[in-house]
UniProtKB/TrEMBL annotation, chains A, B:
UniProt name for this protein: 23S rRNA (Guanosine-2'-O-)-methyltransferase RlmB
GO molecular function, one term: methyltransferase activity
Gene: rlmB_1
Statement: the UniProt record of this protein carries the keyword Protease: no
UniProt keyword annotations, A-Z: Methyltransferase, Transferase
Length: 270, 270
């Protein structure tokens, strides 16, 4: 028997589910450390996390039967709202075909220096400048988790990894891999270097082929946005690395590039 | 001076631009070999292609000034419609922030056997089963082009690479890399084997690590959808290959997996 605290919602105007109203628009404005988690896999990650807490869960009634395992994990002080498909779609503002939502909240925020200070001796870190696209951010987190990255750092021009779509595309990895924001690329590089990280700066015009890179014991992969790429001053002072490809081809998507580079760097360091 | 045949459109009801009406919905129904190309890079690929032709171009008036190079390439028998932003958005049915569209059409359709028969001696082919997501299809084409794949084959359960979003995500690669549809995975494998291709079947539970694969002279990378993966009968009869990752991590996105595998297979064959 589930101990979950199930509350039936019959009206789109019910104030108890106000946090779920118009989730698409709500996602883009001030969220006070809160975020929307969608889908069974992501909710399981949320309930297993020590850095995030669930405030409430919102389920489509026809999904309840298949979610016993999830409901078992939900403490009874967390309301589990349940509504019909029509009421749920009316509240969310569009068709919620998965019908499994939660409001999560960050329980701790760490600065980059504190996060880096506790990295393991052979850490792999992903460092991002200018990744403003939610899909790319989510996909990079998914790849970071797949290849055992210990943290993700990002500058002020990156989007928040806790956007609904970034979390969804990451399949929950945005709630798994610890992250911290830092003001800009220069500060990020300095923080990494002061903790003994070798930095691999990925660029289409990089001087070293990724296949020839021997990673250092502590290694950071630095990625910039497609198009502008990494700031020139950073590329000049760091070893720049390229993924070789057909000469007449423009460039890879930054998430695809992260997959290739992280797969190469994941091997045990020298 | 551009020779382009520029035609001013002032009404959303103008029948000359009927093909652009409600492009999002139109994309999903019968398209009679036609497709929507978006953005400067994709239009340049379209105008350079021998397998596709443009039927018309549709530009937002404030984009005209920066597109002299593109307009130079457009024959004067192809109408170039120009409208204000409001008229264009009204026609397309949503905000067209790029403001650069064309209707393209396939001028030839090849079956898989004919396409494979003319592959070069050391060809690299991507073979897809069940890739129904437009973003993944577009991203796989982009990776295929980056790493010099000579063709893409796909089964009946894959989506059309000429969907608007697949072309856009591919950054035009869907119009560059030749492709053909074939009824199912078994027929695809037989067609590849009869042309002397070694097939690398990618699977999270693959027997060989991708890092240990020595590619054959003719090589095909076989990819299935996330979740279901490749059909069991194909995995049993083919050498299955995995991308090793953290043990507690579920799986990579199929486009990310294609990037890693194609980057590994792209090297000159033995």
């Amino acid at each position: 028997m589930s101990k979950a605290n199930i509350i039936r919602i019959d009206s789109v105007d019910d104030e108890r589910i106000a946090a779920y109203r118009d989730v698409r628009e709500r996602d883009l404005v001030g969220r006070q450390g809160r975020f929307i988690a969608e889908g069974r896999v992501v909710l399981n990650v949320l309930f297993a996390s020590s850095r995030f807490a669930a405030e409430s869960v919102f389920l489509r009634e026809n999904r309840l039967a298949g979610l016993e395992d999830l409901l078992e994990r939900i403490d009874d002080d967390i309301p589990v709202y349940v509504a019909s498909g029509d009421v749920m779609d009316g509240i969310a503002g569009f068709h919620m075909h998965r019908g499994i939502l939660a409001i999560g909240r960050r329980t701790q925020e760490e600065d980059a220096a504190a996060l880096l200070a506790k990295m393991p001796p052979a850490a792999l870190v992903v460092a991002l400048c200018g990744i403003a696209n939610h899909d790319n951010m989510g996909a990079i987190f998914r790849n970071a988790a797949a290849f055992g990255a210990d943290a993700v750092l990002f500058d002020q021009t990156c989007c928040d990894p806790l956007y609904r779509k970034a979390i969804r595309v990451s399949v929950g990895a945005a709630l798994k891999v610890p992250f911290a924001k830092i003001e800009n690329g220069t500060a990020m590089v300095e923080a990494l270097e002061s903790e003994g990280f070798d930095i691999v700066a990925l660029s289409p015009a990089g001087r070293i082929d990724i296949c020839a890179v021997k990673r250092g014991r502590r290694c950071a992969l630095l990625l910039g946005a497609e198009g502008p790429g990494l700031p020139g001053d950073l590329l000049e002072r760091l070893p720049s690395v390229r993924i070789s490809m057909r000469e007449d081809f423009d460039s890879l998507n930054v998430a695809a590039a992260s997959a290739i580079a992280l797969h190469r760097l994941w091997q045990a360091p020298e």
